[in-house]
Amino acid sequence: MAITNAAKKALRQNERRKKGNSKYKNALKSVDKEMKKLIIAGKTQEAKKLCPKLYKAADKAAKAGVIKKNRAARIKSRRTKLSNIKK
Questions:
Q1: Which residues contact 85 (CB under 8 A, 6 or more apart)?
Q2: Which of 54, 55, 58, 67 is the most buried (most CB within 10 A)?
Q3: How many domains are there within the chain?
Q4: For the domain that residue 18 is a member of, what is the CATH number?
């Protein structure tokens, strides 16, 4: 347990940041998972409709510092590539 006041404050800050970060991370994960399911099921048109949601979630997570900018770009690129494959 934290002893000094500075350590106690750092713990409070970490908890606050963790809540904010998890909000962005969970939003990205849920949209990504939903898109993957649609692609696997062969519903590419519906998956394409989710692209803007995925882009928004990835960009927001990158802006908040939850993920890095290049990772956001990689996620967007891979999902778009998968949704463009015709079955």
A1: 39, 44
A2: 58
A3: 1
A4: 1.20.58.110
Q: What is the pTM of this model?
A: 0.82
DSSP string, 3-69: -SHHHHHHHHHHHHHHHHHHHHHHHHHHHHHHHHHHHHHT-HHHHHHTHHHHHHHHHHHHHHTSS-H
Q: What is the chain's pLDDT, residue by residue, as a tens digit (87 residues)?
A: 789 999 999 999 999 999 989 999 999 999 999 999 999 898 889 999 999 999 999 999 999 999 999 999 999 999 999 888 765
User: What is the extent of the structural domain holding 69?
Assistant: 5-83
